Amino acid sequence: MAKLLILGGGTAGTMAANLMRAKLDSSWEITVVDADNAHHYQPGYLFVPFWMKPSRVVRKRTKFFNDGVTFVEDAVTRVEPEANTVHLASGRTLTYDYLIVASGTRPVPSMVEGMAEELERGEKVFQFYTLDGAAELHDALEKFEGGKLLVHISEMPIKCPVAPLEFTFLAEDYYRKRGIRHKVDITFVTPLDGAFTKPVATRELGNMLEDRSIRLTTDFQVESVGDGVLASYDGRELDFDLLVTIPPNMGQQFIIDSRMGDASGFVETDKHTLRSVRWENVFVLGDAGNLPTSKAGAVAHFSAEILVENLCAAINGKEPEASFDGHANCFVESGRGQAMLLDFNYETQPLTGTFPLPFVGPMRLLKPSRINHMGKLAFEQIYWNMLLPGRPIPLPSAMMTAGKKFPKED
């Protein structure tokens, strides 16, 4: 029996397993490996510090695999791509004909001096990129009665790069509703040269920070955290009473140990075909690759059907011809019951306009609206009931230019 092995049972791995099960006949065995049987709705981490119950975020992975998909609960320790073999923590080995790496990314606070220790202490420094961290941050926000609040990104790339901005806007709104906003001095601290990565989005998001009286500190390459001070390599020091930090993100340790990735542990991937640039029977989906686009669930969703088409082509002895354009589509919670929407790809930066229909929308690009916020909340049910099972969602994988306002050239 031919074997398709998928490393990672998160968003990307679950979608890939179910979509490939619908394509391959019974002569193919499809196996998913992950260290535990808990599937986390990671977009929910953003809301846990404010109102979402942690229990709402987690469900059993096995509930979402279609018939004909085998789940192995075990940690991957090493991959031997030349031998088509995967080693597991239990001592078991698995072989494959084709491999999909969908192992995601992880926060690694130990990469910054003092950060891991301060997070462990749980007094002034918190994060929300893990479920436990988000739950602890909920209590910290409740107890905080005023002072300097820093929201900080250590370095790029990170999972869901707009999430720190979303958290900042939600925190501003949270303390406004509590009636103590005037006591909370909020600063958004980023290693980028602006609020975001591209000119139009940087302008619009930067304007919103200014409108909400949120300070912006740019080009901040963090060196250390400790004693209520965030320090950069260029000698700047920022005092804080509460720090919400995004630690450096890296690929999984087994990618590093197997020498399958770059220095950050991300698998080098053809950005169009989603095939490994080193091994023809290895494909990569989701945050595990080094694609030059956002590490986000939307990217995993839009690229999944491209991967399925190309993997099926390879299995049938053909060259992969389907091409992923880097399409990303991200809601940005802006507080006050509103959200913005970003839609972009490798070639087109996030722009203002309407989505998905020109002039009509109903969603607005890079402008806050109630319907964008409702779309963000509705995505939770779409995620569990349509996206993971591999049911079709009426949005094309390629980015549409209709409705977007392109800047005028000088």
From TrEMBL:
The name this protein goes by in its record: Sulfide:quinone oxidoreductase
- Spell out the Pfam families in the cross-references: Pyr_redox_2
Keywords linked to the UniProt accession: Oxidoreductase
Q: Which organism is it from?
A: Arcanobacterium wilhelmae
**EC number(s) on record?**
1.8.5.-
FAD/NAD(P)-binding domain mapped to chain residues: 3-138
Coiled coil where? none
The GO terms this record gives for MF are: oxidoreductase activity
